[in-house]
Amino acid sequence: MQTDDLTGDDLVGVLATLANPHRMRVLAALAGGRNYVSQLARELGISRALLQVHLKRLEKAGLVSATLELSEDGKAMKFYEVTPFELHLTPQALAAAALTLTDPNDVEKD
Amino acid sequence: MQTDDLTGDDLVGVLATLANPHRMRVLAALAGGRNYVSQLARELGISRALLQVHLKRLEKAGLVSATLELSEDGKAMKFYEVTPFELHLTPQALAAAALTLTDPNDVEKD
DNA sequence: GGCACGTGCAAAAGATTATTGGCAGGTGCT
DNA sequence: AGCACCTGCCAATAATCTTTTGCACGTGCC
């Protein structure tokens, strides 16, 4: 994942996702290796519910990916890992991204 | 300005600032050259009040800087220009930044 | 059955952002 | 004086994000 293969809107989404202390810590933790939800929650010292919300946001932004696995003793465990990415942000890169932003005047609701 | 001379908290602030379509357009416009508030508002097609708020946020994040100047005919005009920056975001860079995040358990209110 | 693990989801409350509209001030020109 | 520019700020609303609490479901083991 790279700066210029994202649309302006997607880039905004990714940046918004990164701009949160919890999610930054989650990403940091996963950068050290894959992990499953409950364990990750314990390591970060936050509730599982809260972590889930953040993980979903990270996943939607494409920054992490999940795999549901069965442990040896038969428990369903969801492992997350970081998607490698490399965003290079400069005024020029942002100017280019801005060109592909959705015009607020023709946004359609579902 | 670079990724690793920011604290984790500052980085979160910068990312949050960038993660907005209006601000991205403002930055894009200023990347093409300095400009003053009213003119910029006209070019972007947004209200001056709204632009001001976004410019302040950009300035607080250190992404733009302002200069108050007097035009030839005596009018006070505030010119903004982009601060050159180059943020390189990777899982590793974020992991490093996460180490300097403020612990939510010892935040003090004013 | 009762625990100790794992998962998921959703409603509600709290906190923060985004946006508008109005009003203040200033200059110079006719 | 009245108009056309420039600036700044604030109060109120609307919209969005964050966090908690509680419930549901599953497994294996004593």
From TrEMBL, chains A, B:
One of its GO terms (molecular function) is DNA-binding transcription factor activity. PANTHER family: TRANSCRIPTIONAL REGULATORY PROTEIN. SUPFAM superfamilies: Winged helix' DNA-binding domain (SSF46785). It comes from the Bacteria. It comes from Actinoplanes cyaneus. InterPro entries: ArsR-like_HTH, HTH_ArsR_DNA-bd_dom, WH-like_DNA-bd_sf, WH_DNA-bd_sf. This is Transcriptional regulator. Residues 13-102 form the HTH arsR-type domain. Pfam families: HTH_5. CDD domains: HTH_ARSR (cd00090).
